[in-house]
Structures are given as structure tokens and as C-alpha cells.
Design a protein that fits this description.
This protein is α/β, with parallel strands linked by helices. Among the domains are: 5-167 and 221-282 and 284-290, Alpha-Beta Barrel (TIM Barrel); 314-396, Thrombin, subunit H (Beta Barrel); 406-498, no CATH class. The protein has 13 helices and 30 strands. The longest helix has 22 residues, at 477-498. The protein starts with a strand and ends with a strand. The relative contact order is 0.13.
């Protein structure tokens, strides 16, 4: 019989409170930034906050992963080692890391996950990382279903894939644009997001092919209707991007993916199961279009397709399409053709006939007539989007989920009193309750069940309560309440004692690196990282770009290709319509575009 596989929904947390909400809304695991050295420098958290999150998460057997995934300079290694020991004692289940120096430091036996910053694209790379001691590998976002399937077949390490949120246009860990243009390194958690800026595309004849368009700004990922295919391809952890996102985003998107995964797991419970425990009850209906999004894409899940993967008109959220402008009454009042329920205070936006993005707040709604708070420059037939739903946002601002672990409670008779047993199917305790047994003249079982079921603010919910006594006994409600409270405390304690974090995986072999030399793409920023590569057969190591910038370096390599987007692929006759060289300009920034057609990739240089 095939072994059942755990399926993990992994949600982001910019702080402990957001992580707790992610757990309540159905996450099996959350990832949060370390106090320092995380790939989102603005999302670092204190060890005390992380410890609080771990305590809450472990109640549901949910995991907490900490991102410590920047490259580290020599003088930072000791500080990183100290932080990791603190995180270990705080209860963290795994570290998400990029710098190979961490494999050589004196670390606690905490599990290591290979960050997507490690550029994990091939079966050979993933197997190398598994052999080196990584317990889980975060795959590159650019991979197709077949790519994931090939990696899964060739390796046995759990595979983590991104399923929702913002996309980096460059291969992760291989972007040096921010470091080159501003001195702020993406590999140091300080990306300046030059990919979200508007650029003018100029061809070799000086023609302006596109003017002030966001030509490197990708739409957001949404694989919610492809989860089962990803499971079948071999993925087991499904990651939502967004450690800088607010709590309402995390609530909504986590709950949406929880429902989608639960439907799959329920149909395939013979081979799949949830990685954590507890059932979430929501007070709202999740909808990914109501949270920040730039429009959605499957990216390269099906390989290269004709569907556009960029949103050239704006890097801002466009939200959900709600209809079209039917009539313009005046510069503040329009009539819309829409089935959506609109509300006073909604934020709407549109892209005008010139391709410019505009947004406005709805001051008043009268049927399908909208009164804007500010003057509009809008045309009849324009598509409207809602990027702020006032009613939905106000719902999410309140408590919106509870998560309970289902337990059974049994009251039995003992020689010197009674015993109260609690079980969740895996863990159980029996609490001895000594007292005088006083027979009752009236039935007591219904009242006793009611009292035992009052689990209040605990994370438990009684789905089965059994009164197994030889006769009716009178037990004062206050005494029964005390027994229940004491039994729940012991039960909760026993579950926490039974919890086990994953432990560091030992390196299984001394696998050799696939080349004799590595350049700046290996991101070697300290002596221990260099020693790691040399121990695995590399004879020549170049330092990280941040330490030794390279002239004419690839600042970015991406599967997004502007020639393909414009219908001028060099592999087609239409490629002749766009004369090389192509450049992107923004202010005093000029970037040259190069096309590696053998790998179907675009390269950007300064």
C-alpha cells in the first residue's frame, strides 16, 4: 500500500500576530523573518515574538519556519550562529537559508530548508542540496509541472513550491540589479525593486517601442486551481508569498487555499493528509481577487504560453473586475454596468485608453450610479476594477476564524470516585477525580454532558461526550467544571510534550558540485561558504557580486522575454521586426537586453 503523504499549506507572517492569524485560518506552517539576515530586511522579528508564535502553532502541530536567507559576510557569521541558537530554544522547527556557510557552523540540530534564493531549478541541484543536509527544498518559481515532476522522480527530499503572490522577474538569488544600480542587494534583503519601475523600450534604430511601461513587472501568481496537478507532480508544501503583506491579506489568502486543499485531501484521504491538526471555522467567504493583486498568472507552469505574464500598465493592485462604465453623467458621477454589490467607500481603479492607471474612492452608491470623491477622467466602456472592498475589509478587520481540535470526553466510575478521559485519537489522558459518590434520584447525564462540553477559549471542541456510569450520580456543576478544566490542562500539556520538531538531516554523501569553478552567481560572501564549495570539488571560486562587482555582469536572467511578449521572438520571422540592440530606459538608467535563445531566456545588463 502506498504511504500517505503529508500536504502542507505554508503561509507568510510579518510578525507573530499575523502568524497566529495564519494558523487560525488554516495554515499548516508559517514562515517568519529572523531578527536579522532575512531576505525581507523590513520583516525581521524578535526572538520573543517568534517564541510566542511557536507556542501557539505547536498547539495545532503546525510548524514555524524562520527565514535567515541572506548571504552572510565574514563578520556576521558569529552573530548568525548566536541568533540560530536562540531560535532553536524558542521552538523554531526549521530555518530557511541561502548561505552554505551555515552548513559548517556550530549549529543546534535544527532542520534546514534550502531557500528559493539557492536557485533550485534542476534535479541535480536539488539532489546535491538533499545530500548536503537540507530537509526541504524551495523550488524556483519558473518551473513547469514537468520540471517539478522530473525533480520529484530524481530525488526524495520534500519539495516546496510557491502557489500565490508576487513574482520576482529574475531567477531568485540571481538578481544583481538592485545592488548594481543602488548598492542595495536583493541577496542581502534590501531589494529596491527596479523591476517595478516604468521603462521606455528602444530598439536598434532608436524607435520607442513602448513608453513608460512596467515591462519587467510581473502579474501575481495564483495556482489555486492547479493544486492537485502540483501534488501529483510531487510537491508537498504549498507556499503563499507575502512576508510584507498585512494581516487581512494573510487571513483571506490562507483561508482560500485551505479550503481548496481540503477538498482535494478529502477526496484522496487514502494517500494524502493534512500536515497539522484542527478545523478552522470562518466568518467570511475567502476571495483572492479581494486582496492585493496585479492580475493573476500561472507563470510557466505549462511552459511558455501566449497569455501575458506582465502587467505593463501598473505595478499596483488592480483587484477584481466589477464591470464597465455605461454612462457618464458628469466628471464625478458615472453609471456602471455591473452585477457586483458596491459600497460607499469602495476603492475603484481603471486603465484609460492611453494605458494610464487611475484610482478613485466611491463617495456614494445609488444602485448602479456611482458618485466619486474626486473628479474623473474616464470614458464610456472602460473596465472598472475594485481594489478595496469596504465591506470585505471591515469584515476582515474583526476576528474572522476559530480553529479547534476535535476531542472526545468520557466520564467513568472509579472505586473512589470518578475519572475524566480526553482523547484526540492520537493523544489521551485520564484524570482521576476522587470524591464521594452520591446517587441521584433524577437523570444527570444530559446536564453532565453540557457541563463537560464547555471548553470555552481552549483550542479544543468536544465532538463526542460519553457518560459511562453504573447509575446516576449527583456531581455539583462547580466540581465537574473544575475536573474538566484540570483535565484539559493536563491534556494540553501532554500534547505539547508529545510534539516533536524536525531535526537536522545529516549529509548523506560527499556529492561533488557539477562544475570545477563558480563565479559570482554562487553568492560566496564569506570564507566558510567558499570552503563548502571547495570541499565539494570546486577549484576556483569567485566572490559574491556584493563584494566584487563585475563589469558587464548579468544583472538579471529571466524566463520573461520581452521579444516574446511583443510577438517578435527571434525564432520566428516576426523577430526581424524588432531591430537589435534593445534597451530599457528609466531616467538616467539604461539597461541593455540580450537574448539567450538556446535556453529561451532574457538577460539584462547595465
Amino acid at each position: 500500500m502506498k504511504q500517505r503523504r503529508a500536504i502542507e499549506l505554508l503561509a507568510p507572517a510579518k510578525n507573530a500576530d499575523t502568524g497566529i492569524e495564519a494558523i487560525l485560518h488554516g495554515a499548516d506552517a508559517v514562515y517568519i523573518g529572523a531578527p536579522r539576515y532575512g531576505a525581507r530586511a523590513a520583516a525581521g522579528c524578535t526572538t520573543a515574538d517568534i517564541a510566542r508564535l511557536c507556542s501557539f502553532a505547536h498547539t495545532y502541530n503546525a510548524r514555524v519556519y524562520v527565514a535567515l536567507n541572506t548571504i552572510l559576510y565574514k563578520e556576521e557569521l558569529d552573530d548568525a550562529r548566536r541568533i540560530i541558537w536562540e531560535l532553536y530554544y524558542a521552538g523554531v522547527d526549521a530555518l530557511i537559508v541561502q548561505d552554505m556557510a551555515l552548513l559548517s557552523l556550530d549549529l543546534p540540530p535544527i532542520a534546514l530548508h534550502a531557500s528559493t534564493q539557492c536557485d533550485n531549478r534542476s534535479p541535480e541541484k536539488v539532489q546535491f542540496l538533499a545530500d548536503a543536509g537540507f530537509s526541504q527544498v524551495v523550488l524556483a518559481r519558473e518551473l513547469s509541472l514537468q520540471d517539478i515532476r522530473n525533480i520529484s522522480v530524481a530525488t526524495d527530499v520534500p519539495l516546496e513550491v510557491f502557489v500565490h503572490g508576487a513574482l520576482c522577474v529574475s531567477y531568485s538569488g540571481q538578481c544583481y540589479m538592485s545592488a548594481a544600480l543602488s548598492g542595495r542587494s536583493a541577496n542581502r534583503g534590501e531589494c529596491a525593486q527596479f523591476c517595478r519601475l516604468p521603462y521606455t523600450l528602444i530598439d536598434g534604430e532608436g524607435r520607442k517601442i513602448a513608453i513608460d511601461k512596467h515591462l519587467l513587472s510581473l502579474k501575481d501568481l495564483n495556482q489555486s486551481n492547479r493544486l492537485e496537478e502540483l501534488i501529483d507532480a510531487g510537491a508537498s508544501s504549498f507556499k503563499i508569498e507575502g512576508r510584507l503583506k498585512d494581516v487581512t491579506y494573510v487571513k483571506n489568502i490562507t483561508a482560500y487555499y485551505r479550503q481548496a486543499l481540503d477538498k482535494i485531501i478529502a477526496r484522496r484521504s487514502d494517500t494524502l493528509y493534512r500536515a497539522s491538526e484542527g478545523v478552522s471555522t470562518l466568518t467570511f467567504t475567502p476571495d483572492p481577487y479581494k486582496s492585493f493583486n496585479r492580475g493573476f498568472t500561472h507563470y510557466f507552469l505549462d511552459g511558455r504560453s501566449k497569455d501575458p505574464i506582465i502587467q505593463p500598465d501598473t505595478p499596483k493592485s488592480i483587484g477584481e473586475p466589477i464591470g464597465r462604465v455605461q454612462r457618464i453623467i458628469n466628471n464625478r458621477t458615472i453609471v456602471v454596468e455591473s452585477r457586483a454589490s458596491l459600497h460607499n467607500g469602495d476603492g475603484l481603479c481603471y486603465i484609460d485608453t492611453n494605458g494610464s492607471f487611475h484610482g478613485f474612492r466611491v463617495n456614494r452608491v445609488e444602485g448602479n450610479t456611482l458618485h466619486a470623491a474626486t473628479p474623473l477622467q474616464i470614458s464610456r466602456g472602460i473596465t472598472l476594477f475594485r481594489n478595496s472592498d469596504q465591506l470585505f475589509d471591515s469584515q476582515l478587520a474583526r476576528p474572522t476564524a476559530q480553529r479547534h481540535i476535535e476531542v472526545s470526553i468520557t466520564l467513568t466510575e472509579q472505586p473512589h470516585g470518578f475519572a475524566l478521559s480526553i482523547s484526540d485519537g492520537k493523544n489521551s489522558i485520564t484524570h482521576r477525580c476522587d470524591c464521594e459518590k452520591t446517587p441521584s434520584r433524577t437523570p444527570q447525564s444530559d446536564r453532565q454532558r453540557q457541563e463537560l462540553g464547555k471548553l470555552g477559549n481552549t483550542p479544543y471542541r468536544a465532538t463526542h461526550i460519553e457518560i459511562s456510569l453504573s447509575q446516576d450520580y449527583f456531581i455539583p456543576p462547580s466540581l465537574l467544571s473544575t475536573w474538566r478544566r484540570e483535565a484539559i490542562e493536563w491534556f494540553d500539556r501532554s500534547r505539547r510534550l508529545a510534539y516533536r520538531s524536525d531535526r537536522r538531516k545529516h549529509a548523506s554523501s560527499h556529492t561533488l558540485w557539477h562544475t570545477d569553478e563558480v563565479d559570482y552567481h554562487a553568492n560566496i560572501a564569506n570564507p566558510l561558504s567558499e570552503a563548502f564549495y571547495r570541499q565539494h570539488g570546486v577549484k576556483s571560486c569567485r566572490p559574491a557580486f556584493e563584494l566584487q562587482p563585475v563589469r558587464e555582469a548579468e544583472l538579471m536572467r529571466t524566463r520573461h522575454c520581452l521579444r516574446h511578449h511583443l510577438g517578435a521572438c527571434l525564432r520566428t520571422p516576426q523577430g526581424k521586426n524588432l531591430t537589435a540592440p534593445l534597451t530599457l530606459q528609466h531616467g538616467n538608467i539604461t539597461l541593455s537586453l540580450h537574448f539567450d535563445c538556446s535556453h529561451c531566456e532574457m538577460v539584462i545588463k547595465k
